[in-house]
Amino acid sequence: MLNIILFGPPGAGKGTQSAKLIEKYKLVHLSTGDILRAEVAAQTPLGKEAKLLMDKGVLVSDNIVIGMIDAKIVKNMGGNGFIFDGFPRTLPQAESLDKLMATHSTSITMTLALEVNEKELFHRISLRGKSSGRVDDQDEATFHKRMNVYNNETSPLKHYYKSQNKLRQVNGMGEVDDIFNALCAEIDKGA
Ligand code: AMP
């Protein structure tokens, strides 16, 4: 299986690139943000609880997202593999993902980290906010909150994947297709 983590801060282009990658490599896209937003839209108890945190730009509890991912992995085993987008975001999530993969006799192939500077991230989130309707895309204070959460809780995972020799850093600035080609080149090089 080809199991890829698409890693990066808010606005790095993970959703955009995931859509292109799943088409080319026939993978299943697992975005915890999308799954949570579906729960919010369906007004489930989980969705109602998660919305309060998501709107503020802070993380939903590890147990909730790990449980959601577990269910989706079980449901989609047997395909070519997965693209994880927005997951893992904490060390317990990364460790749980490795365990879940091992349970299914597979593993993470590589982590592709999109590198984009903060000025460009803010620009992209501001643009997206005009059409996404997402509360967390609307103001600068929430953007900075999300960046703090990323820098403190998520970015350190690069060390985790680097120590496993799985981290591939890719320039996430520039044209969508150029970035896509750079991602594909890393994937095609193999693990
Ligand atoms: P995203 O669409 O990836 O930007 O996620 C939007 C929001 O959903 C985040 O700010 C968190 O509140 C929540 N969320 C998404 N993925 C996770 C995750 N792996 N762990 C915790 N919270 C998450």
What does this structure look like?
The protein is α/β, with parallel strands linked by helices. The chain has a single domain, classed as 3-Layer(aba) Sandwich (Rossmann fold), CATH 3.40.50. The protein is 59% helix and 14% strand. The protein has nine helices and five strands, in the order βαβαααβαβαααβα. It has helices at residues 14-25, 32-41, 45-56, 62-76, 91-103, 118-132, 140-154, 157-163, 176-189; strands at residues 2-7, 28-31, 81-85, 110-115, 167-171. A five-stranded parallel β-sheet has the order 2-3-1-4-5, with helices on both faces. α1 packs across α9 (176-189). The chain is globular and about 40 Å long. The N and C termini lie close together (11 Å). The mean pLDDT is 96. Bound molecules: adenosine monophosphate. Adenosine monophosphate (AMP) binds at residues 10, 32-33, 36, 53-54, 57-60, 65, 86-87, 89, 93, 136, 146.
